[in-house]
Design goal:
mainly alpha
Length: 81
């Protein structure tokens, strides 16, 4: 008895025999101590200072102080009226 929902039979090619590595051998080299840090020589780094980024901070600070003081005096004038 066949219905329209019957699953068609598909002929798949045989799966090739995959050569898996020998699982009896551990993948981690046990002769290397994992807690021992390898001796790596790093090159000496010199930090280059960019002279163009030398911003004059006192001038900016003084400008902010002037803006704050004028805003405070305006607030006082509003309260007195």
């Amino acid at each position: 008895q066949s219905s329209e929902f019957s699953i068609p039979v598909v002929d798949l090619p045989p799966i090739p025999n995959l050569d898996f590595p020998d699982t009896s051998k551990p993948t981690i080299d046990l002769t290397v101590d994992p807690l021992k840090v390898p001796n790596i020589e790093l090159p000496e780094l010199q930090l280059a200072l960019n002279e163009e980024e030398n911003i004059k901070l006192p001038d900016i600070h003084l400008q902010n102080e002037l803006e704050k003081s004028s805003a405070v005096s305006l607030a006082i004038d509003i309260k007195e009226s």
